[in-house]
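User: Could you check the structure of this?
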Amino acid sequence: QVQLVESGGGLVQPGGSLRLSCVVSGFTLDYYPLGWFRQAPGKEREEISCISSDEHGTTYYTESVKGRFTISRDNPKNTVYLQMNSLKPEDAAVYYCAAGLGYYCTGHGSMGSPDYWGKGTPVTVFS
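Assistant: Sure, the predicted structure tokens are below.
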């Protein structure tokens, strides 16, 4: 019954923008941090961003996307977004959202592991 569904991926030119969405069901988003991960062919899955469940909405970004990507959440809609600007070819990957009660987000990164994962949405950056 717990489900995370990503959308918004697609083909974009270098320097372009996309907004990814992650709609969650089966639990209330208010109490769950949310992380965005990505995996490119031949590479390991990496965490690129997370947002805490507290009122401050503490966020973290990995260095390679800092200043270009923005994570946000809309709890009444049970939706988390990832706004991606100034996209580079190296950003091409399948992007996943993930959540879990034992998963925490701080300004320095996450702790624990997500319990629930989406199936991913692909992002291609190509001219």
